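Hi support team,

I'm opening this ticket because the web form for multi-chain structure prediction keeps timing out on my end. I have pasted the exact lines I submitted so you can reproduce it. The total is 900 residues across two entries, so I didn't expect it to be a heavy job. Is there a limit I'm missing, or should I split the entries? Thanks in advance, R.K.
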Amino acid sequence: MTEANGRVLAYLPPDEDRLPDDGAPAGHGALRELLGDRVVLCEELGVFFRELGRGGWTATLLRLDAPHVDERLARKVAGESSCGVLLLTAAEAGVEAILAAESAGAAALLPHPPTLELLRRELLPLVDEGPGRAVPPEEADPEDVVGTDPAMIEVFRTVARVASAPATVLVTGESGTGKELVARALHRAGARARHPFVAVNCAALPDTLLEAELFGHERGAFTGAVGRSEGRFGRADRGTLFLDEVGEMSLPLQAKLLRALESGEVERLGASEPVRVDVRIVAATNRDLGREVEAGHFREDLLYRLSVVEVELPPLRRRDSDLIPLALHFTRVFAGKHGREIHALSPQAEARLRRHDWPGNVRELRNVIDRAVLLARGGVIRSGDLKLGREAPRTSPREPSDLADGYPPTWSFVEVEKAHLRAVLLHTGGHMGEAAEILGIHRNTLTTKVRDFGIDVEMKRLLGEAGTLPAPGGR
Amino acid sequence: MTNPAPRAPRDLRVRRALEILPATPELEPFVELLVASSVADPGRRWSASGELGSVGDRLVDARALERGAGRVAAEEARHTERLLRRTAVVVGALARDDHDAILDALLEQGAEEEELGRASRARAWYRAGVGLAREWGHPRTPEALRRAARAARNSGELEEAATAYEEAWAAARELGLEDDAIIAATGRGNVEVDHGRWHEAEGWYRRALEVVGEEGPPRRERWQLHQNLAIVRRRLGDLEGARRRLELARAEGEALDDPDARVEVSNGMGQLLLAEGDPAGAEALFRAALEEASTPKARVTIGVNLGEALLARGRDLEAGEVAREAEAVALARGVHVKLPELYRLLAAVAMHRGEQDGYLLLERALEVIRARRLPPWEEAQTLRALARAAAERGEDERAHELEARAGELLGEESITQGDANGEGE
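Hello R.K., no limit was hit. The queue was backed up. Here is the completed structure from your submission:
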């Protein structure tokens, strides 16, 4: 990480009707009190751009409804590599301002003038983070499991402890957490490292084919059985067989797998004699196999056999300290793969990564960075390059909960419509496009309805007081 | 082992639903709806198996089926009503010995079945038309024959199609019916394309072009033939010849002021650049073509080509995304003929990303080819891709057998580059 200087540039000009002896423009006092000489306050646009050009700003605060400032200018400022995280302020944070902030790629839209409390909550964390992260030099192999989060350290400890033992290992965790990488690490660190590591995805094959793939077949054992196949068990002899998504296997095949595990022999389809195999099994699943047993989808005895040792991989959203190092790791990997010179992750990009929920875990992060490396210009990945789609809204403390119980039967259609529009807009954090999509109406229709019902004023109050409106990451 | 008591339901996949449903003709529209309304499994979006999913792994959308079943039933009722009315017309006209009216009704019915994508039913109506037209020596005999040929081709009956096209060609030449002759020769060339017999295909396309004339007022048939000849030249490895043909197709398309022609020429140029080793140039052309493409088939075709260009540039992630978008269009809009090519691309993407089970998508492609009776060229291409994957896994015996099977399906001159696309009618 480059050295944090925590400097903020602000263009919050005075209102046009301000008198010479009215004192400092609104917002200046709060900024000065919070940041002291780490903030440069500009009252003229020319001065602001000159300062912006000097570079090295951690965050830039720009008043969107100031004279000569509009969405286009805000977008231009956000596009400057020297800008850092862009925050906008506006006295009237209505629908238009929300859309403009979204379009400009601002991290937040704050009510103007911003209060000390608001700045402390929204600006200070960014200032403390510094101007950006440099991509580190080569450290880990692209296929290594990367992580320093305590939960991952525990995973590494377990892997080290059991790698040399013959015990069957069950790796659990959500999709995309890197279960196969852990299985490979177990194989590499164990006594079977010189022998094959063979993987099979149990969810990717229909049952009939999975059986043939696992146990092998003789020539012509079934329609389409071209040649003889020794199967994955046979290929993994003396090595490791990784059974990915084992929870998807059908019950009849589970019985055959259990028999193979118990006897150490497999029966090729169409063969008369079983074949002895020496294979270490590592299985993985994103399902709760205990529950699958209860539901009758998974054999309890097989679960017992597979989970001699269990390794649980945490989801990425719980690996706070790993997110950015992983992002930088993938940045280096994909910059190398695509022949691109990428040397840093911008503060906005980092902030955007942190705000994402990562349902697809490390696999999703990997894809996001792969794409961002191709889109990045000027050697820096910016938030817009991440194409993360719309953000989940920050939770508003005022979010109504009564809607969950439905509407009173005495309400008119108009009342129901208004309440529903309000609920959807709160759900999307004020994002009009997303709200229109959910409602199944055109965005212009939604804008008209929002104005007609006076919801724009209400939204300003609810979302503005709650803090900020989230900006979309990718447009 | 514990004896599992009542099992909680899991998501129903298309593969499972199709296994259960009886294969009766009445259910065909329902099966099409089931496939078209299926959705990608969100639970597998980020799992390794998600990358290896095909149509069978998609989830059945029971609510969409319930909503759509009524619509499909109403469409079927209207279709049946038209069918019965036309049949009544046929019988009435037979009583009056009105040959024109009979052939009108039979060929119309065939055309309606074709529009609904039911080639085998269309084939039956057209064949009825062929029998009577021949018996009466009617001037619409070549038309009935070429239509029957097309329906046979789309039903996977390639030998029957070839014979009917040749008969249509001969009859049209004898009667001096130029348009029928052009279409018959083009269709006959397309059958050769299905077999991967490029020289034979070229011969038929040239015959058609002789009838159209190399020059003259702009004609869509001339544009199509230049386009088809460019494809066979490219497949034969003559990239310069392919470029010349594409330039002719471009000029003809511009004279026709036909946006679809412009799209196809851009697509053809992109394929040429790809074959020449310029995937970046190809990508730009495919993207431009995709912007303008108006039909689902064009969008899927160009989407596959764009995916190939992206993969050639090492951009496997984007290639996979583009291919999945094309797959969604292909399934929703019934462009099943492109599915094998799509799954070959997705297999290549998965294997490029280090997924050793990527070849499973090739198995899925074979399933589609056999279920839909798609051309041998498609099957051979898929078998060859499977052979390469088997060789990479060290399964040499299997690789040789797969390669030999591909060879059996194709003639000696087959070339393993490019994709099948030679519709000329």
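A quick check on our side: The mean pLDDT of chain B is 91. Let us know if the file doesn't open in your viewer.
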